[in-house]
Structures are given as structure tokens and as C-alpha cells.
Amino acid sequence: MINQQNYSRQCIYTFIATEDERVQITFTHFALRGAKPMCNHEYIDLYMEIEDPSVELIRTPFGGRICGRNIPVSRISMYETLVLAFYTDRTRVTPELFGGTYEFIDAAQYVMGTPTPNTVCSYTVYSDQKREGDMMSPTYPGVYPKNLRCSYNFFGKRGQRLRLEFMDFDLLYGGPHCPFDFVKIYDGESEEYPLINTYCGQQRNLVVFSSSENLYVKFVTLQRNADNSNRGFKSAYEFSERFVSLDFISKTDGEHIRGTQCDQKILSKRGSSGLVCSPNYPYPYHPDVICRYYIYGMQDAQRLERVRLKFEKFEIPSSTPTCTDGFLRIYLQGQEERYALDEFDHNLCGQDLPQSLKSEGPRLVMIFKSGSTQGQGFKAQYLFEADYQVPGTASPNGSCQFFYRSESQKKGEFNSPHYPANYPSSIQCEYYFLGLEGEQVNLVFNYFKTKMDVEAYGYNEICQEDWLEIYEVWPSGRERKLGRYCGRTAPGPIMSALGVDTVKVLLRTDDKNVASGFTATYEFFPADTRYVDFGRNISELTEGVLLSPGFPGSYSPSLQVCNWFITVRPHHKILLSFVFFQIEGDPERRGCPGAVVRVYPELSEPPMELCGESLANHSREILSSSNIMKISFVTADKAVGAKGFQATWTEVKEGTKCDQFQCSMSKYCVAESAKCNSLPNCGLDDYSDEVDCLAIHGIDIHLIIGLSFGGAIITVITMCAIFHRKCKRRRTPSDTQHHRNQPKMAATPHIAIQDHV
């Protein structure tokens, strides 16, 4: 075709089939110079929805415009007519621009059932008329039209189920929520029934089963300007009574996963349990069946569960020893989430009863394949157990209770539930550290934070919300609380007392807010190791000094324990005064995790727990409630070291009557021997036991220094005199008596001074 005047030209190709036929156009080559999306200069307009060939094209639905060099997808008419409108403004047009074939195809393949009145692509299929057949989009495999509303309604008989398998599925994809073109499948006879799923884009291996005898499919395409080249879909359907009956699911707590033949999911009801079994159990299962079991425990901020599976019956014959035909595969690590179903943990077949299994997380998945054989199948009990993510031996009743036995492991770690995530609210957890006879238990906290609305020193009575308590437990069962901790106040290192081989830790949380909790280590030590004990028992004294190891140098950054037991006379108490204090830690900000001083004013009560650069006024001086006091200094291996402490202790008489020395300000009654010993026996702010001694001590010191210096001078002079006299004796014997008397005269005042001193 020659166009010398460069006028635009348009050629119309009209294909008209008979009433029971449709037109299919297939392009074999295509090279139009127009470019998408505008397709200027040269293009082909398509019209595939022409009901009446006599109607002008402008009044018929527009099927799209094509250009460029890519061969277009085939087109199939909705009715008997299809029109191509070729446009060009070239001066010369040759057959090489485009070419193809046309075919008049049978339209019966698109009529899959009873047509719905006043629709172009909606049908109803009855199983008593046709048990199996094909379902496809109106112009498959050609590009489907825009603005379609098609429905396919399947009605079977009672006891039947429908299987719908898509061999090809290609719709415009607009995202996972399918906002443009889509297929919706409902598990029933209309849109009022549960939706199985919505599909778009490209689907592979898509098979859908109805739960009962009916199924409803809806195919929708939007009215839009943009062209698409998607084929639509083609599927095969089948009504049958041989598909798996879902009774084996409804008899248990399982829920059938809609759209599958026999897949089910079981969701925890917080610690619930139940049974799962193979299809048709206790009767033999059918061959060539695949069922999946998704057993999911709880997984949220409050609770995390694991799944325990215990088999009661098992019979799955397999034609191969490797269980490649019939099998039950178990997945314990959540492999289904990463589509790693080939990484199963157990592949079971035969007749031996499998061992009890437990998932590593909140999910356990089973895949049952019957293969070509038949057997009775399996029956198993599942149990959702709380998973606190705490190392240790959990209580068999599923409570938050854990045991750490020395005979099993000498050291290890423990933590709050779900650490490092937040612990649950309204929970009580117990940790038991069970040493052998003669052992002691060492605990060291590496991180600690509980919910506390008020920023304060979180210890003992301050802790009323979420808290942790530590107890020493004697072999008799008697318990002694070491302390209650909360907020950021981490417990100091713990070394149980001699004779105490069990320690209990208790975590309690309320129902309001949570925090990240704690992590700690434990270790069991024989009581005769080098770590215990650097302190001593003190009695029959009235005062003394306590020093941390190495003081005034720093204490060693390693595990060490010092216990001082001070006992004074009956009807007396003990006053402990810290003269110097520097222990790593900060009671309010992070507690005393590396090193701690514990003072027991009353042995039956929790001690005071001290650390930091300095002490508050109420803890600089501590008065016992009886004649016994215990002071403990414990450091952990993770300690960094500091100067330590210096403290004095003094026996203080009870009552108002004092027959010894009574301090002027504190009114303490202390022993006379406590006077003038350069120690604050009356307390840190009362110097009355030293005031009257300061001047005397000053004179004595100067006198001693002066006498010592004078004595040294006299000694030197005397020796020189003796030497000089010996020399004179050789020359003048008459001088001997004179020099012999001088030492006696000089010695007289020296002896007097020494006697005075």
C-alpha cells in the first residue's frame, strides 16, 4: 500500500463466525513503529465484544490498542465477531508490518453449564448433570476483556465435595489484596457463605476443595483505560464422594482450613489439649491423600507456648524403608514459615509407636501422606505447654517453676520469662538451686530491671509492684529471706551460708505494665574451697576494726567472700560505723551486681545491702537489735575492684544506767577501754570518747620525740668522751678518775626520763 501524499490510512479487518462459533486471532509477526503507551503513527485497535456486526465500532466496547515489535497475545471474541482496525501515516506499508492466522473455534467449550439469565459469562453447574468438566475465563487463552462480572455456581449432592484445579491462572496483579482483577471463591452456594480466598496475579498449583457439596466462584475485571495482556484462567472441576470426609476434624478441636482437602489448624486456648488423628480414623485411610496439621501455640507478649505430641496409636505401612510412600512428617522448628518443608525433623512410618515430641517454638506441623498403601493411621494427643524460655528443668505441671541440680550441671544461666523480651504480667515464677550436701550456691545477676513507677532504691519494703525475692533454704526446710529487689536495683552477688545447699528465687509480677526482667548465672561450690571464708568469728572483745581484703588498697576483682560474726556480752548491742566506704555499684541506678556489703542487724531478718561511692546517713551507722551481728562482703568474678571499706564496731550496753563510759551526744554506754583509742566508738558524729585524750596524746608524742632525740645526742657525746679518755689515759694517768665519773653524771637524767616515760 502506497501513500504518496502522506495521508493517514485505516484498514478494517472484520471476522464473523457462525452462531455457535467464535473467532481466534493469533499473530505470527508484528513490527508496528508506534510505541506504547500512546502508539502514535501506527497501531491496531481491537474490538472483541461485538454482539451485532452492524453496530458502529465507536458504539462497541474497545478491546485495546497494540503497537511496537512484541508479538501480541492471542485474542478470542466474546461473540461471533472480531474486528481489527489498522492505522498508519506511513508513505509505504508492506506485509512485513504484521501478520497472523485466524480460526473459527467451537463456542461450546465456554458454555460450562446452565447460563444465568441476563449475563454474558455466568453459569450454574449441577453434579447430577455433569460430574466433571472445565471452567475458564470467557476468552481464554486470549486476553480477557475489561469490565466483566462472571459467576460460576456449583451444586453437588449431599456427601459430595468439589475439587477445582487451575491449570493456568494469569490475572492482572495489583498487590496481595487484589484491587483490580480477581477471582473470589466462596465455600457455599453464594457470596453470603465464607470466603475461601481471593486470587489474582499468577498462581501455580492452585487447587481448591469445597467443604460441602456447593461452591461459588466470582470473576471480576475492572473498567480501566490501561491495556493488559493477561490470559485469564482455565481449571478442571470434579464432584466426588471419595474426597476425604471432614468428620475426623470436627470430632476434635481442629478447624478445617477452607479450600483444602483435609488440612486443619489447631489453635491453643491457653494450655489446652486434645487429639489429632488420620483421616477416617479408626478405619483405614484412603490412598493418595495428603493432609496437613498446623498446631499453633500462643505467641504474644503475655504467653509463649510449645507443643507436646504423644502418640497413642500408629500404623502407616510404607512400600519403602525410607518412608517415601506413606509417611507422617513432623516439623518442630517452624519450617513452614520459610517454606522449608523438605527440612522435616522426623519422617515416620511403620507400626512402632513414636516417642513423645516437643516443638522448639510455638508451632508444630505434621504432613500425612497415605501413598498407595492403606493402614489404620495414627492417633496422638497434643498439649500446649507454657514456654517461658528459661533454661533449666521445667516443672512437669507446666507452671513457671524451674530446678537446677548440682548433680546435673555445676553452673549455668537462668533468666526471667521471655528474656530479653518483657516478662508476662500477673505471673509467679520459682527457681530452685539444689546443691549436694556440703555445697554452697553462688548467684550473680548480670542484668536486672522490673517495672517500678517510682525511681528509687528498689529494696525490701519499697518493692510493692513487680519484684524478685531470694531465700536461703536449710536442709530442715527453714527459709531465710535475703532480700526483695525491684526497679533497677540488681541483687548483689549471693553465696549461701555454710550448711545451706539450696537457694530459692521468686519472681512476682502484678497485672499492670511489665519490663525486661533479669538474667543471672549460678554455680555450686564445695564449702571448703578457697572462695570461702575470709572473715572470722569475733567474741570476748568490746571493740574492733573490720577491713575489706587488701585495704587500704583495692579489693581483688574476683570471687571472694568475707563473713564476720560479732558476738558481745548479753544485754549489749553492737554499733557498726563505716569510717570509709567505696564499693562498686549504684543502689538506685543499677544495684550492687559486682560487689556488696550485707549487714545483718537481726539475723532472722533480711540484711541491709550496701554499695556505691558513699553511704546514706541511715546506713553509715548501724546498731544491732541483739548481741549478735553479721557482716558479709561478697564480690563476683565480674567485679572491677575498688578501695573497699573500713568500719569499726563497738559493744554498747543496753538500758539507761551506765556504769562505764557514756558518750555525750549519742548517749551510748561503751567500755572504758574504748576511750582514747583513736576510733569512733561513740559514733561518727560523737567524739566524746576521744576529746579528752587529744591534748595528752599530743604532749606525749612530742615528749617522746624530744627525749629520743636528746638521748641519741647524749649517747654520741658519751661515746666520744670515752674514746677521748682512753687516749688521755695513755698520756696522763692522773686524768683517768676525772673522765670515769662523767658518764655517771650524764646518765642520771637519761634514766629518769625513761622511767618517766
Automatic annotation (TrEMBL):
<feature type="domain" description="CUB">
    <location>
        <begin position="400"/>
        <end position="525"/>
    </location>
</feature>
<feature type="domain" description="CUB">
    <location>
        <begin position="534"/>
        <end position="652"/>
    </location>
</feature>
<keyword id="KW-0472">Membrane</keyword>
<protein>
    <recommendedName>
        <fullName>CUB domain-containing protein</fullName>
    </recommendedName>
</protein>
<dbReference type="InterPro" id="IPR035914">
    <property type="entry name" value="Sperma_CUB_dom_sf"/>
</dbReference>
<keyword id="KW-1133">Transmembrane helix</keyword>
<dbReference type="InterPro" id="IPR000859">
    <property type="entry name" value="CUB_dom"/>
</dbReference>
<dbReference type="Pfam" id="PF00431">
    <property type="entry name" value="CUB"/>
</dbReference>
<dbReference type="GO" id="GO:0005886">
    <property type="term" value="C:plasma membrane"/>
</dbReference>
<dbReference type="InterPro" id="IPR002172">
    <property type="entry name" value="LDrepeatLR_classA_rpt"/>
</dbReference>
<feature type="domain" description="CUB">
    <location>
        <begin position="262"/>
        <end position="385"/>
    </location>
</feature>
<feature type="transmembrane region" description="Helical">
    <location>
        <begin position="701"/>
        <end position="723"/>
    </location>
</feature>
<dbReference type="InterPro" id="IPR053207">
    <property type="entry name" value="Non-NMDA_GluR_Accessory"/>
</dbReference>
<feature type="domain" description="CUB">
    <location>
        <begin position="1"/>
        <end position="105"/>
    </location>
</feature>
<keyword id="KW-0812">Transmembrane</keyword>
<keyword id="KW-1015">Disulfide bond</keyword>
<feature type="domain" description="CUB">
    <location>
        <begin position="121"/>
        <end position="240"/>
    </location>
</feature>
